[in-house]
Design a protein that fits this description.
binds pyridoxal-5'-phosphate, 10 helices
């Protein structure tokens, strides 16, 4: 019998919510609205569908591993350098790449509780430990308590903003004050999967922090507002140094061609 790593004995597989078709069949319902995965109920841009239909003629060809066109389109839109992006098969995959790049066995990472469950799994896969700090009484990340839980083993803080599952935000002022206080040797991952739904008001414009802080990675995705969850494409934004390390760990053709053309079309629509 082959032997799995000891760590694998403690991992739990991710159990997604049931597909709508299964719930309909099981309960005899005609109309089901699924809230669990935060998919876009309006679907994707018709231009994305059109782009994928056209792309389908090229299925025999490996995708562009560098995501060049998508990279350039995003760099132009966000006024950043193309080399400041890393693409993944969903931000899920980028979380794995970040963990594999920065976590040594015995290292710790920290997040709020409850928050997005993958922070725990990706930490455990690397033989690290996730410290979960209770949210405040109004269901928000408690950044002071997170700072108090940092020790010499801490490598990453995962900040889910807005937080899944509570939908609360941390404000620009709170984030600035946190980044001022935290050691510059600790990576701060700002998971902004729901950025487009939250932007404006007190919500931080995190791209503006990139020039001041070398220890942040911002994560965004095409799965939510762009309605492309089925194709799996998300991106990380950081400084060129961090992106270069992440690229050493990333697999060669990790974002498929359909996802790349759909994301570009959706961005432009
Ligand atoms: C907070 C958060 N981060 C990351 C993800 C992963 O998104 P994806 O891998 O589809 O980009 C999700 C999806 O539900 C999420 O809620």
């Amino acid at each position: 019998m082959v032997l799995q790593r000891n760590t694998v004995n403690y991992l739990k597989p991710y159990i997604p919510g049931k597909p709508i078709s299964e719930v309909k069949r099981e309960l005899g319902l005609d109309k089901v609205i699924k809230l669990a995965s935060n998919e876009n109920p309006l679907g994707c841009s018709p231009k994305a569908t059109e782009a994928v239909t056209k792309w389908a003629e090229n299925m025999a060809i490996y995708p562009d591993g560098n995501c060049t066109d998508l990279r350039n389109a995003l760099a132009k839109k966000l006024k950043l350098k193309p080399t400041q992006f890393l693409f993944g098969a969903g931000t899920d995959q980028i979380l794995e790449i970040i963990a594999a790049t920065f976590i040594n066995p015995g290292d710790k990472t920290i997040t709020g509780h409850p928050s997005f469950s993958r922070y725990e799994t990706v930490t455990q896969i690397m033989d690290g430990e996730l410290i979960q700090v209770s949210l405040t009484h109004d269901y928000r990340f408690d950044l002071n308590s997170i700072l108090n839980n940092i020790d010499e083993k801490t490598r990453i803080v995962w900040i889910c903003n807005p937080n899944n599952p509570t939908g609360t935000i941390i404000t620009a002022q709170e984030l600035n004050s946190f980044l001022e206080k935290i050691s510059k040797e600790i990576l701060v991952v700002l998971d902004e999967a729901y950025y487009e739904y939250a932007k404006g008001g007190d919500y931080p414009e995190s791209l503006e922090l990139l020039d001041s802080y070398d220890n942040i990675i911002i994560l965004r995705t095409f799965s939510k507002i762009y309605g492309l969850a089925g194709l799996r494409v998300g991106y990380a934004i950081s400084n060129e140094n961090i992106i270069e390390y992440l690229n050493r760990v990333r697999g060669p053709f990790n974002v498929n061609g359909a996802a790349q053309v759909a994301a570009i079309a959706a961005l432009e629509d």
